[in-house]
C-alpha cells in the first residue's frame, strides 16, 4: 500500500498546483489524521468544542512544516469528500497561526476540477465572511481542550502560500530525502 505522505508527489506543478490528502471533512467534528506507519487515516479524536470543519482539511504530500508535521491544507469545497481522498488543488492564500507556541500555518486552496471555484485565484477572492468563519474555527476549536492555546495571526496572499509550500518541500527534503 502506498504511503500518501511519502510516495505521492507534492503536486503535478507545485507550488502552483498541489495534491491535498483529505483527513477531516467539511461539516464534521471528527479529527482524523493520516498515520504513515499503518498507512491509513485514523480517528485521532472528536473535537471537544461544538464546531465543525468549514472545509475539507488535510496535508500536502512530501511536505514538512515548522510544527514538525506535514504542511496543513484546507480545501474549499461545496460538498465534503472522504478521508484519504486526494484532491488536485490550487493554493490561493495562507492563514498564519500559532498552535501552542509552534508556527502552524494553513494553506487555503480550491479544487482545480470544480468550476465553481475557477474565479478564486487569490486571497481577495475569498469572501470576508468565509475568511472570518475559517479564522473563528481555528480560534475556537481547541477551547475546551485543557492546556491548548491557539492564535490566528492573519491572512496572506497566494504568493505567500507558494513560498510556504516551497519552504515545506525544502524541510521535507532536509529531513527525509
UniProtKB/TrEMBL annotation:
<dbReference type="Pfam" id="PF00719">
    <property type="entry name" value="Pyrophosphatase"/>
</dbReference>
<feature type="binding site">
    <location>
        <position position="72"/>
    </location>
    <ligand>
        <name>Mg(2+) 2</name>
    </ligand>
</feature>
<comment type="function">
    <text>Catalyzes the hydrolysis of inorganic pyrophosphate (PPi) forming two phosphate ions.</text>
</comment>
<protein>
    <recommendedName>
        <fullName>Inorganic pyrophosphatase</fullName>
        <ecNumber>3.6.1.1</ecNumber>
    </recommendedName>
</protein>
<feature type="binding site">
    <location>
        <position position="57"/>
    </location>
    <ligand>
        <name>substrate</name>
    </ligand>
</feature>
<dbReference type="GO" id="GO:0000287">
    <property type="term" value="F:magnesium ion binding"/>
</dbReference>
<feature type="binding site">
    <location>
        <position position="67"/>
    </location>
    <ligand>
        <name>Mg(2+) 1</name>
    </ligand>
</feature>
<keyword id="KW-0460">Magnesium</keyword>
<dbReference type="GO" id="GO:0004427">
    <property type="term" value="F:inorganic diphosphate phosphatase activity"/>
</dbReference>
<comment type="similarity">
    <text>Belongs to the PPase family.</text>
</comment>
<feature type="binding site">
    <location>
        <position position="45"/>
    </location>
    <ligand>
        <name>substrate</name>
    </ligand>
</feature>
<keyword id="KW-0479">Metal-binding</keyword>
<dbReference type="InterPro" id="IPR036649">
    <property type="entry name" value="Pyrophosphatase_sf"/>
</dbReference>
<feature type="binding site">
    <location>
        <position position="104"/>
    </location>
    <ligand>
        <name>Mg(2+) 1</name>
    </ligand>
</feature>
<comment type="subunit">
    <text>Homohexamer.</text>
</comment>
<keyword id="KW-0378">Hydrolase</keyword>
<keyword id="KW-0963">Cytoplasm</keyword>
<dbReference type="InterPro" id="IPR008162">
    <property type="entry name" value="Pyrophosphatase"/>
</dbReference>
<dbReference type="GO" id="GO:0005737">
    <property type="term" value="C:cytoplasm"/>
</dbReference>
<feature type="binding site">
    <location>
        <position position="31"/>
    </location>
    <ligand>
        <name>substrate</name>
    </ligand>
</feature>
<feature type="binding site">
    <location>
        <position position="141"/>
    </location>
    <ligand>
        <name>substrate</name>
    </ligand>
</feature>
<feature type="binding site">
    <location>
        <position position="72"/>
    </location>
    <ligand>
        <name>Mg(2+) 1</name>
    </ligand>
</feature>
Amino acid at each position: 500500500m502506498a504511503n500518501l505522505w511519502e510516495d505521492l508527489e507534492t503536486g503535478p506543478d507545485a507550488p502552483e498546483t498541489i495534491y491535498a490528502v483529505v483527513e477531516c471533512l467539511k461539516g464534521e467534528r471528527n479529527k482524523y489524521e493520516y498515520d504513515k506507519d499503518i498507512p491509513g487515516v485514523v480517528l485521532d479524536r472528536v473535537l471537544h468544542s461544538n464546531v465543525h470543519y468549514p472545509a475539507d482539511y488535510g496535508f500536502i504530500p512530501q511536505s514538512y512544516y515548522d510544527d514538525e508535521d506535514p504542511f496543513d491544507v484546507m480545501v474549499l469545497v461545496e460538498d465534503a469528500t472522504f478521508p484519504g481522498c486526494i484532491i488536485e488543488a490550487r493554493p490561493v492564500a495562507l492563514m498564519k497561526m500559532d498552535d501552542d507556541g509552534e508556527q502552524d500555518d494553513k494553506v487555503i486552496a480550491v479544487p482545480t476540477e470544480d468550476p465553481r471555484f475557477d474565479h478564486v485565484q487569490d486571497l481577495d477572492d475569498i469572501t470576508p465572511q468565509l475568511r472570518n468563519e475559517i479564522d473563528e474555527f481555528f480560534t475556537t476549536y481547541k477551547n475546551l481542550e485543557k492546556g491548548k492555546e491557539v492564535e490566528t495571526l492573519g491572512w496572506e496572499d497566494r504568493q505567500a502560500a507558494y513560498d510556504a509550500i516551497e519552504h515545506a518541500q525544502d524541510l521535507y527534503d532536509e529531513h527525509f530525502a
